[in-house]
């Protein structure tokens, strides 16, 4: 087998791989010997069929497999010898298209090699970690929100207002005919909750207990039930009670509703939760600062194919964000602009750098971490969790999509451990401004 270099330009590489006819024949013979013990042909005992007969009957069928094995082996040996790692799947083409049995096999292989990535002095990275304490005011605000969610409703005299609860019987009709799911009795509806069809709740504002009225609405075009989508409907409503909201008292009883032993214990839980949220936001700010430093610290050649693919993906994503009404890919070609290419270069550079740092540090995503990631995604498909698990198990690309962000975060943590990090205590507002600034960069 012979490998000859034909291209060496930047990260682009090209080679001609020649597999001699003799080597190919030896591969076929090897496969015949391997298969011989399991083959049974009339007139011969199992495993005793002469190789000459096997070659006559199965040789042509095994020739393609032998050719592929030989080429794969040559590529594998080449990458082990050179240390090259292709940025994307190598392009491999047979050059002697008029090949016939007995000829040498000549294959052209081209690819872009991943660049040599320089070492990063993690000790030279300097970071600031924002620290926010849960202030009493924030804890009290959270308690008030909890009290509102635990609110009750008391009967009131007078007309219903936004935020009040009306208890109603209703019967919905389209074209004068009642439809399935369009009726209920003693239904408690909070006005302003937007839990009913648009326009329904606003027509009940001002109603009083004992009132009977018709509510006229139009089902949205995208309504789930196709027989109702876009249709005009009339709901015959009887208001049986009007109730005003009453926030729960902030005391030990409220705390017990939320699983805490006492109000003080609930305050502690709230403070811990708030500080965990602050910590997550502060980490995002610090991660951006780290990536900015790494982008300035390390420069190296980038595989053009990776940059081009990333730029196209960025352009496509941004176009859809600007045109949310367009679903799928039924649109014209999207122009890749210079700003897309610049962002793509940053993402590819940082992606390759973090991958190399992680590889050298032997960072791995554990099975338990992958399971947690799959569980988190599966929750988005209630009732179809098992099907989602099976889909992930069979789809390597989806597995990689779930693994990539976990790996990146673990590499970031590894870099932070070796960096010079100082804590800076700031207010919640200062942290919020820092987080908002991330979207403006």
TrEMBL record:
It is an enzyme of class 5 (isomerase). It catalyses: [protein]-peptidylproline (omega=180) = [protein]-peptidylproline (omega=0). It is found in: Cytoplasm. Its main location: cytoplasm. GO terms for molecular function: peptidyl-prolyl cis-trans isomerase activity. It holds the Pfam family FKBP_C. Residues 163-245 form the PPIase FKBP-type domain. Keywords: Cell cycle, Cell division, Chaperone, Cytoplasm, Isomerase, Rotamase. Its EC number is 5.2.1.8. The keyword Chaperone applies. Consists of 3 domains; the N-terminus binds the ribosome, the middle domain has PPIase activity, while the C-terminus has intrinsic chaperone activity on its own. Belongs to the FKBP-type PPIase family. Tig subfamily. Involved in protein export. Acts as a chaperone by maintaining the newly synthesized protein in an open conformation. Functions as a peptidyl-prolyl cis-trans isomerase. This is Trigger factor. It comes from Halodurantibacterium flavum.
């Amino acid at each position: 087998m012979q490998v000859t270099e034909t291209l060496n330009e930047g990260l682009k590489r090209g080679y001609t791989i020649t597999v001699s006819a003799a080597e190919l024949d030896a591969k076929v013979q090897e496969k015949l010997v391997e298969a011989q013990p399991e083959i049974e042909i009339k007139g011969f005992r199992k495993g005793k069929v002469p190789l000459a007969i096997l070659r006559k009957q199965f040789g042509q069928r095994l020739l393609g497999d032998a050719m592929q094995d030989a080429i794969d082996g040559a590529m594998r040996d080449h990458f082990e010898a050179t240390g090259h790692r292709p940025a994307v799947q190598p392009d491999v083409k047979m050059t002697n298209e008029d090949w016939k049995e007995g000829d040498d096999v000549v294959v052209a292989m081209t690819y872009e090699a991943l660049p040599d990535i320089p070492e990063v002095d993690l000790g030279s990275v300097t970071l600031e970690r924002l620290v926010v304490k849960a202030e009493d005011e924030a804890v009290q605000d959270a308690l008030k929100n909890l009290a509102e969610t635990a609110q009750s409703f008391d009967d009131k005299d007078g007309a219903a207002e936004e935020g009040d609860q009306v208890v109603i019987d209703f019967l919905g009709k389209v074209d004068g005919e009642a439809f399935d799911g369009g009726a209920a009795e003693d239904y408690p509806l909070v006005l302003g909750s937007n839990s009913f069809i648009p326009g329904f709740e606003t027509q009940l504002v001002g109603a009083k207990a004992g009132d009977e009225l018709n509510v006229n609405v139009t089902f949205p075009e995208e309504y789930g039930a196709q027989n109702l989508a876009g249709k005009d409907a009339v709901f015959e409503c009887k208001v049986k009670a009007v109730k005003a909201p009453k926030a729960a008292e902030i005391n030990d009883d409220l705390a017990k509703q939320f699983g805490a032993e006492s109000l003080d214990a609930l305050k502690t839980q709230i403070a811990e939760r708030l500080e965990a949220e602050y910590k997550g936001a502060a980490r995002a700010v610090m991660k951006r600062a780290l990536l900015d430093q790494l982008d300035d610290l390390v420069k190296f050649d980038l595989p053009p194919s990776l940059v081009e693919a990333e730029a196209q993906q960025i352009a496509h994503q941004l176009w859809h964000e600007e045109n949310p009404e367009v679903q799928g890919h039924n649109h014209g070609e999207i122009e890749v602009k210079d700003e897309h290419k610049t962002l793509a270069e940053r993402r590819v550079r940082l992606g390759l750098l973090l991958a190399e740092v992680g590889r050298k540090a032997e960072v791995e995503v554990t099975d338990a971490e992958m399971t947690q990631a799959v569980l988190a995604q599966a929750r988005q498909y209630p009732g179809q969790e098992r099907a989602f698990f099976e889909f992930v198990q069979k789809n390597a690309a989806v597995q990689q999509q779930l693994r990539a962000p976990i790996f990146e975060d673990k590499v970031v943590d590894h870099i932070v451990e070796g960096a010079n990090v100082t804590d800076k205590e700031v207010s919640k507002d200062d942290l919020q401004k820092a987080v908002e600034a991330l979207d403006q960069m």
